[in-house]
Amino acid sequence: MTDFARLAEDIAREAGDMLLAKRPTMSVASADVLTKSSPTDVVTVLDKASEELIRQRILAVRPDDRVLGEEGGEAPGVSDVRWVVDPIDGTVNFLYGLPDWAVSIAVEVNGRVVAGAVNVAPRGEMFTAALGDGAWLGGERLRGNPAVPLAQALVATGFGYDAARRAVQAEVLTGVLPRVRDIRRGGSCAADLCSVAAGRVDAYYERGINYWDYAAAGLVASEAGARIGGLDGRPYNSELTLCAAPGLFEELHDLLASLDPERDA
């Protein structure tokens, strides 16, 4: 497992370095930008270049593996190993020069995530995890915050791109905000989950994220001691992902469940 984590780390670092080198030549007005699911859901030429670099590096070392990427879909392979790639998680932050974006690479074996690396490149932070071997930031082992009462919890969240979904998310937020210490909205699911692992926030929840957003960072958070899941005992998923220390997880879960967050306007 640790060999997978090292390879994911090396490739995520190379992709992050490439993005940092090319980002200063771009601006929001001049960048080559396309949209995906909505006018606010953007993808840049560098998202695609990052994913292509990552695919090439993986397949050069492990040509039989499968690779699932946000931009290019799944490349077939014959092994039981699949790599799950988000070439830039937080593309809007990337475009605007904000520091919360990441290169995320997870490794599955027989459908289970066993290793991952999340490179929050603008901050110079590499988060890694291997199943059963803990979560790490550089050479420091991560152990997230112990559970605090819900009223003392600093909670990270995010919002979708569709206007109708955002309206519901804002409604849910008005039910959460009076019950917690405060809310943080960073703009990158992967960075937010790693912040739970590092103890920078106490909890995180979001509706509408994709598997490549949370595959690697979810392992980082769980290996740091956090509980991660969906509503009503379901695994974490695109409908709702919730992450916090055991104890706080249950409190936040019950609050969210009462607000019916898995709906759109």
UniProtKB/TrEMBL annotation:
Transmembrane segments: none annotated. It is an enzyme of class 3 (hydrolase). Keywords: Hydrolase, Magnesium, Metal-binding. GO terms for biological process: inositol metabolic process; phosphatidylinositol phosphate biosynthetic process; signal transduction. Its cofactor is Mg(2+). Coiled coil: none annotated. Mg(2+) binds at E70, D86, I88, D89, D213. It catalyses: a myo-inositol phosphate + H2O = myo-inositol + phosphate; L-histidinol phosphate + H2O = L-histidinol + phosphate. GO terms for molecular function: histidinol-phosphatase activity; inositol monophosphate 1-phosphatase activity; metal ion binding. It holds the Pfam family Inositol_P. Pathway: Amino-acid biosynthesis; L-histidine biosynthesis; L-histidine from 5-phospho-alpha-D-ribose 1-diphosphate: step 8/9. Its EC number is 3.1.3.25. PANTHER family: INOSITOL MONOPHOSPHATASE, INOSITOL-1-MONOPHOSPHATASE-RELATED. Belongs to the inositol monophosphatase superfamily. Catalyzes the dephosphorylation of histidinol-phosphate to histidinol, the direct precursor of histidine. This is Inositol-1-monophosphatase. It comes from Nonomuraea glycinis. The lineage of its organism: Bacteria, Bacillati, Actinomycetota, Actinomycetes, Streptosporangiales.
